[in-house]
Amino acid sequence: MAIFNLGSINADYFYRVPHLPGPGETLASTGLSRGLGGKGANMSVAAARAGARTIHIGAVGADGLWARDQMMESGVDTRHVATLADTPTGHAIINVDDAGENAIVLLPGANHAIPSETQEAALSEAAAGDILLVQNETLMQAEMAKTARDLGLYVAYAAAPFDASATAAILPYLDFLILNEVEAEQLAQSIGKTPEALGIADVIITLGAKGARWINGSQTRDFPAMPVTAVDTTGAGDTFTGFVLAARDRGLPMEQAIALAMRAAALMVTRHGTADVIPDLKDVDEARF
User: How far apart are alpha carbons 277 and 176 in whole angstroms?
Assistant: First the structure.
């Protein structure tokens, strides 16, 4: 089986700050680093490091070939990552404070210009039972989800960054929905339904330091977070998503998949960075919490 991920690829620029800046405030950064990021790339790397065959569908500019190559080195199939001559690679400006919290500004760039033929070529390789994963940092999510549903794929959606119209359009095609507490509230306000009332087979609400909640039909189960000291929360939710879907792709029951993903996310928040520091299965198995 395989995970096909229509997702963003970003160059992440990290600025270390004493606290997150407020309106009109100028802060001196104590450090700057660049790394591979984007919710899509993060999830693809996480899924690959969790042991899943992962095919990324996306695009970079000529300035982003290093990002594509880094994904490939992490085990991601990048044959369906297009290179665009006249569009810059997406990038993110990430402020991280001393408590590990972050604030992010995104430039979509090539993520909003993925050629339709690239998407079609990727799904032509998919088979019933494979997974399609999408997020909100690209375009054409609902169209891809509908095609994937027609092909018999399990359709998974991370509703971030939250967009009411994009989320409403894709909901009818979903088997799996993951979102955080704030996004769950935004969804309920925008469509007038709670996550429990959506009729989606698997809904996961990530709760930060409190853990995660799995909604399966009329049943709800909470999973506590691992006791760790966070230094950087960037990419933790993406790591969780990649691991939980990779575990499901390998045939693990959802309870076990979530438990594994909780461990991976807990390990992730103890590291500075995004895709380059996402743990692999060996790291997660050897971690002591």
Answer: 26
Give the active site residues. 238
Task: Provide the β-strand partners of residue 157.
Answer: 134, 177
Angle at 178 between CA 174 and CA 184, to 5 degrees: 105
* Averages of pLDDT over each 10 residues, the chain, 289 residues: 97 92 93 92 98 98 96 98 96 87 90 97 97 96 97 97 94 97 94 92 95 93 93 92 98 97 96 91 91
Pick from 1, 38, 54: nearest CA to 250 = 1
Has 58 been labeled as part of a binding site?
no
Q: Residue 216 is inside which H or E element, if any?
A: strand 212-216
248 among annotated binding-site residues? no
50 three-class SS? coil
* Spatial distance between the Cα atoms of 42 and 235, rounded to a whole number of angstroms: 7
232 is in an annotated binding site: yes
Domain annotation for the chain: domains and CATH numbers:
3-8+38-85+112-286 (3.40.1190.20)
* Token duo for residue 124: 């032509």
Query: What separation in angstroms does the CA of 124 have from each of 148, 153, 247, 262?
Result: 10, 12, 24, 33
- In whole angstroms, give the CA distance from residue 214 to residue 229: 24
Instruction: Kindly tell me the sign of the dihedral angle through the C-alpha atoms of 222, 223, 224, 229.
Output: negative
Tell me whether residue 132 is annotated as binding: no
Task: With CA atoms as reference, report the closest residue to 274 among 134, 71, 135.
Answer: 71
